[in-house]
Amino acid sequence: MTSLVLTVRETLRYRGAIGQWSWVLHRLTGVGVVLFLALHVVDTSWAVFYPELYVKAIAAYQSPIFTIGEFGLVFAVVYHAFNGIRIVIFDYKPELWRHQAQAAVAVLVLTLLALAPVFLGMLSHVIDFYLVEQAIAGDRLLDVVLFSILEQLPFIAGFVAVLVAAIVLAAVYSLISGDSSTRSRYPQASPIEGFWWAFMRLSGILILPLVFGHLALMHVVQGVFDITAAQEVAGTLASNGTIGAVPSAVEFVYHRWSYAAGGVFVWRVYDMFLLVLVTLHGFNGLRYVLTDFTSFNHFARRTSVALCTVIAAVLLALGAAALFVPLEKDIIGEAMAATAEIYELRGEEVPAELEAWLNGAGDAEAGE
């Protein structure tokens, strides 16, 4: 904590101009993306395992707090990607470092130019949802905001549990390895660290088309507001089928992951590559950030490494399970009751089609 406070204080005092601030912004945007990644992988897995929870998670994303956060997320991804390219180029061409200030400015300009049309597209979805459709009644806005905050409590509890697990793992490792007080206070170079250094550069390049493609489809072409309104899923063909009269977030995921071309579930494979690369890249980057502030305390440093390792392993296992488990049509039915709850929370009238579906399902169950 002392190291963190010192870093923040000296960052504000140090006059390193654009080079310093690009370093700070790269780390801040990276940490922001990693935090969202953890949230996103867990809640997306709910579409398969806990459909009603996924419906509520998407409803939380459609609240004002997350709407603002979505713009911040897209900025973080785009800036981090472009600045990462700058870092990779300079790492392999050190003679170009004399131009780093101009390159940092170019990254900012390029980011803003790229984001201008993206933000306009996203803003059109926001205007349609809040102003044209008036999907949330004015007197229910505070209820929706509180709902979106309360929906994050399980994630906070999960993080605390993982942190405790990381501390336990660090303590066990310390007992096994013995006292390390005689070792260097600075981490030593190793072939493993060399591998991760190279991996960060290579994966950063490989991630670009995957991440930008995902952003384009899921935040611009069909944003978070379209997930509960679209009759068709971008990136699939009409032969894949259309979504029912009352679209749900779960049905959107069902159609997307069910789409196959040439016998290959295209979006499952795409999302699997994205999951592996982004998780490993992101949490190894988080490890760099955390160990920067814990280098002088062996136990804290081990806890940081264990924390990143445990979370990454959990996300990879959970994401892979969600992607490869057989999709059952029943998950759509399980989401309908939660969809009706969301309509009521927002002060909207529950569509007649949804009421008819729910009553029909209840009658069918009674008949059984």
DSSP helix fraction? over 70%
Q: Kindly state the mean pLDDT as a whole number?
A: 85
**Contiguous helical run count:** 13
Taking Cα atoms only, what radius of gyration do you get, to the nearest Å? 23 Å
Distance between the termini: 61 Å
- Spans of 5+ residues with little confidence (pLDDT < 50)? 362-368
Strand portion, in percent?
under 5%
Describe this structure in words.
With 368 residues, the protein is mainly alpha-helical. The model is unreliable at 362-368 (pLDDT under 50). Helix 2 packs antiparallel against helix 3 (51-61), helix 2 (17-49) packs across helix 11 and helix 3 (51-61) packs parallel to helix 12 (330-345). It has helices spanning 2-13, 17-49, 51-61, 64-92, 100-132, 141-150, 153-177, 191-221, 249-258, 266-292, 298-324, 330-345, 352-367. It has one domain (2-367). It is built from 13 helices and no strands.
Gist of the model:
This protein has 368 residues and is mainly α.
Chain-wise SSE layout:
Layout: H1 2-13, H2 17-49, H3 51-61, H4 64-92, H5 100-132, H6 141-150, H7 153-177, H8 191-221, H9 249-258, H10 266-292, H11 298-324, H12 330-345, H13 352-367
Helix pairs in contact: 2-3, 2-4, 2-5, 2-10, 2-11, 3-6, 3-12, 4-5, 4-8, 5-8, 7-11, 8-10, 10-11, 12-13
